[in-house]
Amino acid sequence: MSGAEILVGYDGSPDSAVALQWALDEAAHSGRPVRLAYVFEWATMVGWLGPGVAPGVWPDDSARREVERLVHRAAGDTANAHPDLDITGEVIDGPPAFMLQERSAESALLVLGSRGHGGFVGLLVGSTTVTVTAHAHCPVVVVRAPAGNVPAGSADGPVVVGVDGSEQSLVALGFAVERAAQRRVPLRVIRAWSPQGAGDASGNIDERLADERTALAESLTPWQHTFPGLDATVEVAVGSPASMLVEASDGAQLVTVGTRGRGGLRGMLLGSVSQQLIQHARCPVAVVRER
């Protein structure tokens, strides 16, 4: 095993189980250890267990013991099924968003399911997801499971990355290149922007498209030296970045974006593009920040 661990938000829900499956696949390629983490917050547990539970009863040792049994049983069963991987589990006390953010500083990657119960209620659709992805110290992968207990996306599909030339998007490019090379699948590098004014709407569009395509190809050159077998394509278009990336996610195994961008990708993390990807992408979404 090598390097920092892959941290998985786990609460026993079907979606957290799908996140775990994605993390195990990542570990098989990267050799990193996997840690299942259940963030236990009694106030949240009260809402999960029902209105009959007295909120004044805290801490509830029996509830915490049950959570510990769930996590360690899941970790043990997973380790038995994957003897070649290093798999552990733990219960972390505190507010989910804050504790995941703190633990991400020690992790290589944080993997979350699209929905959960207990400590992860609303993790995807509410402010918790925005907080975690905005402030995590490592890349965050959100795994969607629209049907069945398998991660969305195609196992042999390409890795897609949105790039706009900003430093953050180039970090995302590196993340995507490494995943594509590890899995020996194609890489799609996409640059899209929406016209902002007369200059963009003029006859200079074709010239700009050509310039952008050349710049993207040049940004790939160092990576192609590092990974000579890398199968990469560059796509540049005028249009909505979110729409183009969501469309590209169909049949992909991962869509990757940086925490911040410029031009058409401005606000990639905290704005509408990242939100649309997390909500509507048809495969897992990685949000990558510079460490």
Automatic annotation (TrEMBL):
InterPro entries assigned to the protein according to its UniProt record, in alphabetical order: Rossmann-like_a/b/a_fold (IPR014729), Universal_stress_UspA (IPR006015), UspA (IPR006016)
Residue ranges occupied by any UspA domain in the UniProt entry: 6-144, 158-289
Pfam families listed in its UniProt record: Usp
Domain of life: Bacteria
Family: Belongs to the universal stress protein A family.
Protein known as: Nucleotide-binding universal stress protein, UspA family
Organism: Micromonospora avicenniae
